[in-house]
Design goal:
By secondary structure, the protein is an all-alpha fold. 72% of the residues lie in helices and 0% in strands. It contains nine helices and no strands. The protein has helices at 12-26, 33-40, 44-47, 54-77, 83-100, 102-110, 118-135, 142-164, 174-194.
């Protein structure tokens, strides 16, 4: 990547983009101030002018990855009105992102979103809005919405984690099993909505 020129000095976004490039090339374990500084051809202290350390770097990168993910997810689901079709397209979009960007997906999944943090809260609201579209209803209770989000995330992200770990070794197609899971998930969501 190299050192930015004087007239084009290093920015916070440059650091985030360099970190993302490292993750894409080397995996989630490459996310750190020292590695990113090497990629930029600078000394680590130069990064501290923009981010206070590894924790802030990880947060900034994870939030940036979430924004990228939401952009891709929206493109693949924007015109879908039928809730079951939306769930299937959304599940496939998540899985496609995980397959295309395994390191980024890992960083995203390892970052804990805190509702009391304004930046994390924004990501949570964005996620909730997708679920509200999926459910085609604005009249869900907060409890129902949380239960549905947790169940859907556990099923979809759990499947992806097992698949990426190479643990789905039985002879059935993982594509077929994923589709069956999404169909069953829709039935479970409908059950929660009605209770």
């Amino acid at each position: 990547m190299g050192r930015p020129t004087k007239e084009n000095s290093l920015t916070r976004q440059d650091v985030i983009e360099a970190a993302i490039a490292c993750i894409e090339e080397e995996g989630a374990d490459s996310l750190g101030v020292n590695r990113v500084a090497r990629a930029l051809g600078i000394k680590p202290p130069a990064i501290y002018k923009h981010l206070k350390g590894n924790a802030e770097l990880k947060k900034a990168v994870a939030l940036n990855i979430y924004r990228r993910f939401f952009a891709e997810f929206t493109i693949k689901t924007v015109d879908i009105k039928d809730p079951q079709t939306f769930l299937k397209a959304g599940g496939i979009a998540i899985r496609d992102f995980a397959r295309s960007h395994p390191g980024l997906f890992q960083v995203m999944m390892q970052f804990q979103l805190h509702p009391d943090d304004p930046e994390s809260a924004e990501v949570i609201r964005e996620s909730q809005s997708f679920f509200k579209v999926l459910l085609g209803s604005k009249d869900l209770s907060e409890t129902q919405l949380i239960d549905i989000m947790r169940m859907a995330n556990a099923a979809i992200f759990g499947f992806i984690a097992l698949e990426q770990s190479g643990l789905l070794t039985l002879p059935r197609s993982t594509e077929d099993s994923f589709q069956v899971m999404l169909d069953a998930l829709f039935v479970a969501i409908e059950h929660i909505r009605k209770n």
